[in-house]
Design a protein that fits this description.
Blueprint: H1 5-26, H2 29-81, H3 98-108, E1 118-119, E2 123-126, E3 129-141, H4 144-157, E4 162-170, E5 175-186
Antiparallel strand pairs: 1-3, 2-3, 3-5, 4-5
Helix pairs in contact: 3-4
Length: 188
């Protein structure tokens, strides 16, 4: 006995529907969703970790550069604070009119003649060598370049004269400088 064609179609449809339902049960979507969620979480974690790593690497490089600069400055300070070897000292005969030479150097770079320096007591470096100090205070000019050019001019034109100490302060419209020049001379 065979079924009428309409019943056969219904049975085929029911069979197809049951097969599709069974197939969906055999492929659970929650596992795929869970895997995608874990993957997304891993990608987010990797991105955050990479960003933190990059920032830490940059900070480490900056710290290393700062450390290197600080070490170089400390070495320079240490080198400058060590007393010079006797063989390294360049000692000069006493100058005639050193203050005039300093003032002439100021004229050459376009500064007004500074007030006369305060001449401090000579420092005895050794029994035969003394350090002459010339302190100028409150030397002012509108340009720091001109003040620094004066220092360079003095060191280049007055034999043996060096900048011993320097204080440069910016004002509203002028720069104020206090400077001490020094020169090693044979004691008389």
């Amino acid at each position: 006995m065979s079924l009428p064609p309409l019943a056969q179609d219904e049975q085929t449809l029911r069979l197809l529907r049951d097969t599709a339902t069974a197939e969906r049960r055999n492929r659970p979507r929650w596992m795929i969703s869970l895997a995608l969620a874990v993957l997304a979480g891993g990608l987010i974690f990797a991105g955050v970790s990479w960003t933190a790593h990059t920032a830490a690497t940059r900070q480490l490089a900056s710290e290393r550069a700062d450390d290197r600069d600080l070490t170089n400055m400390l070495l320079e300070i240490q080198r400058l604070s060590e007393p010079p070897e006797q063989g390294d000292l360049q000692v000069y005969d006493p100058l005639e009119g050193p203050v005039t030479m300093l003032e002439d150097a100021a004229d050459r770079v376009g500064l007004d003649r500074p007030a006369p320096p305060r001449l401090d007591r000579d420092e005895q470096v050794t029994p035969t060598i003394s350090r002459k100090l010339f302190r100028y205070t409150n030397v002012t000019h509108g340009s720091a370049d001109a003040l620094l050019q004066w220092l360079t001019e003095v060191e280049q034109t007055v034999e043996g004269m060096q900048v011993h100490s320097l204080e440069l302060i910016a004002g509203d419209s002028t720069w104020r400088m206090s400077v001490t020049f020094s020169r090693l001379e044979t004691s008389s």
